[in-house]
Design a protein that fits this description.
Helices cover about 50% and strands about 5% of the residues. The chain is α+β, with helices and mostly antiparallel strands and about 750 residues long. The protein folds into three domains: about 5-60, no CATH class; about 115-130 and about 415-720, Collagenase (Catalytic Domain); about 170-380, Neutral endopeptidase, domain 2 (Orthogonal Bundle), CATH 1.10.1380. α20 (about 430-450) crosses α24 (about 570-585) and α20 crosses α26. It is globular.
């Protein structure tokens, strides 16, 4: 347990510095020890009396004697907050260091991690809870959903058994997907681009992929959205650097895996040539990839094409109707197709030109496509494959091999998310805690609407429509209700066949086939807006513009984001800002293009739209000036998240102030307003490896944790007032970006 904050105020004696052979020195030492012991005893007695002096029913209540909350929940919160802070830092110069400085000093990035944060700490705590749940014995003859998850986890943890299978499971899959002569698995038929349908079904992402999603302009219907894909490295920018580190790591990774699968390593076997050609093709693709910033532009990425137009314009690529018919038939579905959405239109034109002009040989394309299938299954294999995989990821992302249970929990959690969520929900959630979250959400909603009246840049017509949209937002908290019903949960995974005899790799294939069938079943039906798109147990929350819905997953509704019995300033500073953040996504540079029914319509007046665009430019410029460890933030890529962070802080603070007075925390000489901002900042305490930080700023739409704190709070007048920051100090610049 952490030391109580009350005890942090007791001076610590350095006994070694007082050692002396002189009698007087010994006497002084004894006196000093006696004084310290008396002080320790008195202070400890006070703390224990504060904790034990409350009835159990009052344990988590905000009410307390006087103006200080002395429940055990408040004492623990005070200790946790204080231990992370570095109060030697001026909060008006660097509030992140002020809030997280000591956390950084007392934490290290665990082995196998590229990043470590309070997010990560909660994630690992959740993983331990899931580990314990998945390790529970399965009742004999039980074929329920939770038992399937436990069988899958047990087989994943049996690494010796997985090692004994060697390359065989993956070889069998390659054979099922059409073979691969490079690794000595016969190909019954000559490969062509038409084989992509089968390979994509089995998880290849060669050249492109598609998603079944709600239509932007009619959210009640689903459409097929095609997008660029197929790189081994995290983004296209990794292929254009002059540093050969990533190229060498990728080629070495490919060679290790292909040799394990049976490829001939002799110098004249052609293996090295094949690897060089695969990498060269990926590099060519990277050069025609649409930039990540453009992918956030919902106008550029919505291009409707009929089947006939696609086939007549992309004559060298694939017949899109044949491709879809084959893919859907593998998943057991037979439907008629009309239109498709090309998310990355220019990419498809360039890709077609490359193929038409014979930029790559058919052998080169085949080897690339086969590799694009194989690479997705390496984490499921034995230790030899894992060694190759983690050697590669440690260079590229800073992530390496972790404790086996963490890997297995993650794999099972993502394979059977609702089954895994059931024991987690049983252990950690009550109706009262869900109601408390619902109350905070209500307060955030009402405050956001009230704040709209103060935004003079919005005209009355647009303001009214914004309020209507807020009222139409639907919400989900913790987990879907059906997982608490054994019959419904078991029916949900009825078509997944996993028992005690099912090998781990086979279990994964069972889940994949189930997921593919579920995926294609959505097409041709009205959009199911009740679907959950992330496992309930992960540390996250999300907003869907097409559904106009936000979801707060069970995994994030724990400390340091939420705890029943926290004073309002802690709850609103942590989970309250998260709620405000997700709500604001409905009004960021992407979300504000969708109305209250989730449709992309012109529902703003021109005047308000122009004012909105002018204000977003301020955020783009502000965040582009930030850097962390010499890695610059991309203000365009992160624009939507930065807008949401700022809106979340403003809205949550005002909502908290409407709650009225709350008792102060013990042994922290800070106001409740100040603690609101500390609670917010400590959610983002983060340590990065250089590799992971580069990955973050290159590919992630979120700014790095420290920047999220600094960026949002420099725009907050309430923050500057709370800490009495002088004008034009680092955290209180004269020019502030303001939107929501």
């Amino acid at each position: 347990m952490e030391e109580d904050a009350l005890l942090d105020t007791i001076p610590k004696a350095n006994f070694d510095s007082h050692r002396s052979k002189q009698r007087k020195g010994k006497q002084n030492l004894l006196i000093l020890v006696l004084v310290v012991c008396i002080l320790f005893f008195v202070s400890t007695t006070i703390v224990l009396a504060a904790i034990l002096g409350y009835r159990e029913s009052d344990r988590n209540s905000e009410s307390s004697s006087g103006d200080t909350c002395t429940t055990s929940t408040c004492i623990d919160a005070a200790s946790s907050l204080r231990k992370a802070m570095d109060t030697s830092v001026d909060p008006c110069e660097d509030f992140y260091k002020y809030s997280c400085g000591n956390w950084e000093e007392t934490n290290v990035i665990p082995e196998g991690f590229g990043v470590w944060s309070t997010f990560g700490q909660l994630g690992e705590s959740n993983s331990v809870a899931l580990k314990n749940a998945l390790e529970q014995p399965v009742p004999e003859g039980d074929t329920g959903a939770v038992s399937k998850a436990r069988h899958m986890y047990a087989k994943c943890m049996d690494l010796d058994l997985i090692n004994d299978a060697k390359e065989e499971p993956l070889q069998e899959l390659i054979q099922t997907a059409g073979g691969w002569e490079l690794v000595k698995i016969p190909e019954p038929e000559q490969w062509s681009l038409s084989d992509l349908a089968k390979e994509h079904y089995w998880r290849s992402d060669a050249f492109f992929r598609f998603n079944i999603e709600a239509d932007d302009f009619n959210s009640n219907e689903v459409v097929l959205k095609f997008i660029q894909s197929g790189l081994t490295l995290p983004s296209s920018s990794y292929y254009t650097t002059s540093d050969s580190t990533y190229e060498n790591a990728t080629k070495a990774y490919m060679k290790s895996v292909l040799m394990l699968l049976g490829a001939d390593e002799a110098p004249d076997s052609g293996l090295d040539d094949a690897i060089n050609q695969i990498y060269a093709l990926e590099k060519d693709l990277a050069e025609i990839f649409m930039p990540s910033t453009d992918l956030r532009n919902v106008t550029l990425t919505y291009n409707v094409w009929t089947i006939e137009d696609f086939n007549s314009n992309f004559t060298s690529l694939i017949h899109i109707d044949h491709y879809l018919e084959d893919y859907f038939s593998f998943a057991g579905s037979d439907v008629t197709f009309s239109d498709v959405i090309l998310t990355t239109l220019d990419y498809f034109f360039s890709l077609n030109d490359y193929i038409e002009n014979l930029k790559w040989s058919e052998l080169q394309m085949k080897n690339y496509a086969k590799w694009s299938l194989v690479k997705h299954y390496i984490p499921l294999m034995g230790q030899d494959f894992l060694d190759a995989y983690y050697t590669f990821t440690s260079v590229v992302t800073g992530n390496g091999e972790r404790e086996r249970y963490l890997t297995c929990v993650s794999l099972v959690e993502n394979s059977l998310p609702m089954a895994v969520a059931r024991p987690f929900a049983d252990k950690f959630f009550t109706n009262s805690s869900r109601q408390e979250i619902a109350d905070i959400i209500h307060g955030i909603r009402e405050t956001f609407k009230q704040r709209l009246d103060g935004h003079e840049w919005l005209d009355q017509e647009t303001r009214g429509r914004c309020k209507e949209k807020v009222d139409k937002i639907t919400q989900e908290i913790a987990y879907p209700e059906f997982i608490k019903d054994d019959e419904k949960l078991n029916e949900f995974y009825n078509n997944v066949t996993i028992d005690a005899t099912t090998e781990f790799f086979t279990s994964y294939i069972e889940v994949l086939k189930y997921a593919r069938a579920d995926e294609v079943s959505q097409y041709g039906k009205p959009t199911d807006k009740t679907r959950w798109y992330l496992p309930p147990t992960v540390v996250n929350a999300y907003y869907s513009p097409s559904f106009n819905k936000f979801v707060f997953l069970a995994g994030i509704l724990r400390h340091p984001f939420f705890e029943t019995g926290w004073p309002s300033y802690l709850s609103y500073g942590a989970i309250g800002v998260v709620i405000g953040h997700e709500l604001t996504h409905g009004f960021d540079d992407q979300g504000q293009q969708y109305d209250g029914d989730g449709n992309r319509l012109k529902w703003w007046t021109e005047k308000s739209q122009e004012a909105f665009q002018d204000r977003t430019k301020c955020f783009e410029g502000q965040y582009s000036q930030y850097s962390l460890n010499n890695q610059s933030v991309n203000g365009s890529l992160t624009l939507g998240e930065n807008i949401a962070d700022n809106g979340g802080v403003h809205t949550a603070f005002q909502a908290y102030k409407k709650r009225g007075s709350a008792p102060r925390l013990p042994a922290i000489n800070m106001t409740n307003d100040q603690l609101f901002f500390v609670s917010f900042a400590q959610v983002w305490c983060t340590l990065y490896t250089d590799e992971y930080l580069q990955l973050q700023v290159t590919t992630n739409v979120h700014s790095p944790g420290p920047i999220r704190v600094l960026g949002a709070l420099t725009n907050s007048k309430e923050f500057s007032n709370a800490f009495s920051c002088a004008a034009n100090t680092t955290m209180n610049p004269d020019d502030k970006c303001q939107l929501w």
